[in-house]
């Protein structure tokens, strides 16, 4: 008996689902018609319809009367719903306008900032933490979060920092060269191996010297061009994150 009751409950649930999400071969809503439609969601004022052409939102007042009755449409309830929706949207606009007004009041004047490094791109909601020199503030560097950084400026800084890291690695990584005697127990062979190792070491050092000279020249050229290629126009918003001021980039000088 319990199994029969459970089966009847399940069948009833399926029947309700079929009624509320049934496939409608052609659903005419006002001047629009939808093929193979399903009414997937309703509110007092709107119905969401999925159909073979996509998804549409239609006014409940445009549904056929039978579906209006099925979904409990009431013009008075729809009017209240729309009035409340409009009130909330206007309230949200007022809050946004007040926020923007307050933010504008806190914002500082636009300045030229010469960026020298991107320090962190992951810890502050996708806003890069940068090192830079502000115009009229001497040669001291400061840290700031920069929104809307232009792609060319970001690319230049990445290339500059990679080259700087490569030079540092070349300068600090020791050169190691090993050689083994061709015949065990032969002093002559060991001396020959040592001589070959020393020669290889000298060649490696000479090669590194040439490489470093080339890289340092590139680095020097990029440093001289930082002001030209990594300067931005930006203004402080008056807001901060973890103690770092948030700036908004408006372009390049």
Task: Set out the fold topology.
Blueprint: H1 2-20, E1 24-29, E2 32-42, E3 46-51, E4 54-59, H2 65-70, H3 75-106, E5 111-120, E6 129-134, E7 142-147, H4 151-172, H5 187-224, H6 226-229, E8 231-241, E9 244-251
Helix pairs in contact: 4-5
What labels would you give this structure?
five-stranded mixed beta barrel, alpha+beta, 253 residues, 2 domains, disordered N terminus, four-stranded antiparallel sheet, SH3 type barrels
Q: Give average pLDDT, whole number.
A: 85
Distance, first to last CA? 83 Å
Beta strand %:
25-35%
The figure for the number of domains is 2
Number of helices: 6
- Using only C-alpha atoms, the radius of gyration works out to 36 Å
Strand order within the widest beta sheet? 5-6-7-9-8
> How many β-strands, per DSSP?
9
Poorly predicted runs are 1-19
Summarize the amount of helix as a percent range: 40-55%
Q: How would you spell out the order of helices and strands?
A: HEEEEHHEEEHHHEE
Structure commentary:
The chain is of the alpha+beta class and 253 residues long. The chain has two domains: 2-83, SH3 type barrels (Roll), CATH 2.30.30; 108-251, no CATH class. It has helices at 2-20, 65-70, 75-106, 151-172, 187-224, 226-229, and strands spanning 24-29, 32-42, 46-51, 54-59, 111-120, 129-134, 142-147, 231-241, 244-251. The protein has a five-stranded mixed beta barrel with strand order 5-6-7-9-8. A four-stranded antiparallel β-sheet has the order 1-2-3-4, with no helix packed on it. A hairpin with a 3-residue loop joins β2 (32-42) and β3. α4 (151-172) packs antiparallel against α5. The radius of gyration is 36 Å and the shape is elongated.
